[in-house]
Design brief:
Elements lengths: L28 H9 L4 E2 L3 E5 L5 E5 H9 L5 E3 L4 E4 L1 H9 L2 H11 L4 H6 L6 H11 L8 H12 L3 E4 L2 E4 L1 H9 L5 H4 L12 H7 L10 H5 L25 H12 L3 E2 H12 L3 H14 L2 E5 L2 E4 L3 H5 L4 H11 L14 E2 H12 L6 H13 L3 E3 L4 E4 L1 H6 L9 H8 L13 H11 L5 H14 L3 E4 L8 E5 L7 E7 L14 H10 L4 E6 L4 H9 L3 E4 H13 L4 H8 L5 H31 L9 E2 H9 L8 H12 L6 E4 L2 E4 L3 H13 L5
């Protein structure tokens, strides 16, 4: 660098995980970047063109290249609604042509760039650098691609060289390393020591607002609402660019302010449309959310107003109050704080919600929204783009909240004689085998056998074949002749975590499909090279990642999908995952509806002053359910479930003239359904 001064680096959590690749050669990135930058500013829909070192001409849409490759590391930025221009430091590099200058700024914006230089030793290979990235710096990488992207850029800038398999730091790299402000590994992992919890006298004073309402019983905690729902967080500005401009707290505060002392539905809809740019459908979803939070209530026909405490709860400075209030109303809210002692991702928290608390409706979106409110209250903080951790204030708050017990502990406390689940156990062993053998690359037979067991769990007659000229697994849906179908499954293990383009032979798969008279083709592997995805669609084959198959097995165990519906999903080659997810959501919704119908009938039967001797009408059931489910359950959905529960075989409800009464305990009902399942042969 001309000045030999350290360039201030962004905090690790604010740096980008990705460093893009410009088509044309790994070690030629700097030269290719120069060709691209001189064509900016450029309209997003226009084409950018460049020439590779081999003389090949390449082009890409400006919007795609700048957004996908150049924006994350801060090489290009949007100057207007559709214009892209070089960033300030990219423009400076074009003028000074100092590669150390560019490398320092890439380090300031990208994780594990200068830190990679530090990790290079005497006999360092790319695999060693991946280990340093994951083990030392806590990055969630599973392939060598992000490491190779970085070494490619550093090679193009003269900071490293490749000697065979070894990555070697050059003198220029040594000089750069001396002036770069590097991130400490414990900071990157989010493990630096936090300050001790501050005295919470002020916190207690704030929370006194709730009186005893924070001290819920376990039954109340279990019955909290599952879904917060939709809160608009953008605005109608032309420069919005698809990004949220408001925090979750600020969005609620703005919505309550727009409502003022009260407004008609049409008036409020127009105000929200002008402020947030939302459609009428989104407005309807938002109104469901606001009413369920209890911050907005209907005061007359089509007229709504903030609740008595709404303004105080959403006022700036009262974020802690709002977080405590939302904890009382929604599942897995304050409980999140217990599971962020070590930094965790949203996906990891979703798994905790489902496995530890039985919160089956947990999604990344719902957990992200909870984290947004907790972060706004200073109870959690973001470690990087993926992970969060609890703060001292968050640990302190848990002392004041009644928190739901984990499902196992709650079960032991409530009823040590709870009925045993006689269903087949969760296919944990099969999932573990898929993960173990699918990422080795040498245990192909073991992986093929694990894939066969997975398809058998889904209800197919699955046979492991393997060998030359044969498919790995043949899965047959043993149904009536017109409904029967066959799937050939190709199992591809990979030692580096990604199935290479050359590993999938589509010509051979077509031969196998014809030989085995199969209807569908599935390839199972850990990850797939990008171009394989397009080739698979062209060759009518489904690429199924191991983690997708594991999720499928887990959801199937909880809500088994009929083989006929699986057939329809396998027919959607271009949208298999989305179609399957939609079908399982329907099954999961049906199960939750049935559970709530039983709960409502039980509540009515056990009420000290039951209406009509414990009977509850269909209308009252639907009215209660419509507040909890989006979209609202139809009369047909509810009637079908009530008919099932009222059948002599299930014998859960007694039905008379549109009214229904619980006639057995939910415990006996569970035992009866499990017993019925146990009588069916599964061999």
């Amino acid at each position: 660098m001309h000045s030999h001064q350290a360039v201030p680096a962004k905090p690790w959590r604010d740096r980008s995980n990705s460093l893009g690749y410009i088509q044309g050669g790994t070690a030629a990135q700097a030269a290719l970047l120069q060709q691209v930058l001189v064509q900016l500013p450029c309209d997003g829909k226009d084409a950018l063109e460049w020439e590779t070192s081999e003389g090949k001409h390449v082009s890409a849409r400006c919007e795609d290249l700048c957004r996908r490759v150049l924006s994350a590391p801060g090489l290009a930025e949007r100057s207007g609604e559709a214009q892209w221009q070089p960033s300030t430091y990219a423009q400076q590099w074009l003028e000074n042509r100092d590669n150390s200058f560019l490398a320092a700024h890439l380090h300031a914006n990208v994780k594990f760039f200068g830190e990679l230089l530090l990790a290079i030793g005497d006999q360092t290979k790319h695999a060693d650098l991946l280990e340093a990235a994951t083990e030392t710096y806590g990055l969630n990488w599973t392939t060598l691609s992000p490491v190779r992207d970085r070494t490619g850029w550093l090679r193009s800038l003269g900071m490293v060289e490749l000697w065979g398999q070894r990555v070697v730091r050059t003198e220029l790299g040594d000089a750069l390393l001396k002036v770069l402000p590097l991130c400490l590994p414990e900071t990157a992992r989010g493990e630096e020591e936090q300050a001790a919890t501050e005295p919470d006298a002020g916190e207690r004073e704030q929370l006194a607002f709730f009186g005893d309402s924070l001290q819920l019983e376990q039954v109340d905690l279990r019955n909290r609402r599952a879904l917060i729902g939709y809160i608009p967080r953008g605005n109608a500005s032309e420069n919005r660019d698809g990004d949220s401009t408001l925090t979750a707290n600020a969005a609620l505060r703005r919505l309550i302010a727009l409502l003022g002392e009260g407004a008609g539905l049409d008036e409020f809809s127009e105000l929200c449309s002008n402020e947030f740019g939302i459609s009428k459908t989104s407005f309807t979803s938002m109104m469901h959310t606001l009413r369920h939070t209890g911050l907005v209530e209907q005061t007359s026909f089509n007229y709504f107003a903030p609740s008595e405490d709404a303004h105080r709860l959403v006022d700036e400075g009262n974020e802690l109050l709002l977080a405590a209030y939302l904890h009382v109303r929604y599942l897995f809210f304050g409980e999140i704080l217990l599971h962020l002692g070590a930094p965790a991702t949203t996906s990891a928290l979703v798994a905790v919600a489902k496995e530890t608390y039985g919160y089956t409706q947990a999604t990344n979106g719902e957990v992200r929204l909870r984290l947004a409110f907790l972060q706004g209250a200073g109870l959690v903080e973001r470690v990087d783009w993926q992970r969060f951790r609890v703060t001292a204030a968050g640990r302190s708050l848990t002392k004041h909240l009644a928190l739901q017990l984990p499902a196992e502990a709650e079960s032991e406390e409530a009823d040590s004689a709870a009925p045993q689940d006689a269903r087949p156990s969760l296919p944990e062993a099969v999932i573990a085998q898929l993960r173990q053998h699918g990422n080795v690359g040498t245990d192909s037979r073991e992986f093929e056998e694990a894939v066969g067991r997975a398809f058998a769990f889904l209800g197919f007659q699955a046979e492991h074949l393997g060998g030359s000229g044969r498919t790995d697994v043949l899965a047959i849906a043993q149904l009536a002749a017109k409904d029967q179908y066959r799937i050939i499954v190709d199992a591809k293990s990979s030692g580096n975590g990604q199935v290479a383009e050359s590993s999938v032979k589509f010509d051979a798969l077509r031969d196998h499909k014809r030989k085995h008279k199969a209807d569908h083709v599935v390839v199972v592997g850990p990850e797939f090279a990008p171009r394989l995805k397009n080739w698979a669609v062209e060759n009518e084959a489904i690429l199924l990642r191991i983690e997708e198959l594991a999720t499928l097995l887990d959801r199937h165990w909880r809500n088994p999908m009929p083989l006929t519906e699986l057939r329809d999903a396998f027919s959607r080659i271009d949208a298999f995952s989305d179609d399957l997810d939609e079908r399982y959501q329907t099954l999961e919704r049906r199960s939750l509806l049935m559970r709530r119908i039983i709960d409502l009938a039980s509540q009515e039967a056990l009420d000290e002053d039951p209406v009509d001797d414990g009977y509850i009408s269909v209308e009252n059931i639907i009215y209660a359910l419509r507040k909890e489910f989006t979209p609202r359950p139809s009369r047909q959905e509810v009637d079908e479930l009530i008919a099932f529960l009222s059948s002599p075989v299930v014998a859960a409800l007694e039905s008379t003239k549109g009214r229904h009464k619980l006639i057995d305990s939910p415990r006996n009902l569970a035992l009866r359904l499990v017993g019925l399942g146990g009588t069916i042969a599964t061999d």
